[in-house]
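Lecture 7 notes: from sequence to structure.
We start with the chain below.
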Amino acid sequence: MAFVALSASAIAALSPADQLDYYRQEREVLKAALTRKNTRKVTIKPSEKGGVSMYGLGRFPVTLYESQWKALRDNLSLVFDLIDANREHFDAVAAKKGFNPEG
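Predicted structure tokens for the same chain:
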């Protein structure tokens, strides 16, 4: 059976056991919605100008030419070393902006 949201007065009219069941169902619906929201599908496709565009990382696609993608691939260890060395800084900025980098 599908979850139906109730008004506060309708919830108050329920027995304590039914209220608990209602709130459990509501929690599951909210958790499922949050999971769907934080799941981004990353896709790639060739751009009209000869680059490769990656979608799903943020609001706009990341578009680089082949040589730029290869340079990025060859230097990924540097990127991750920088991230690891500055973890506290990145976490502080994310917390200040209310941003969850995992999703």
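Points to note: The helical segments are 8-12, 16-38, 66-74, 76-85, 87-97. The chain has two domains: 8-38, 43-97.
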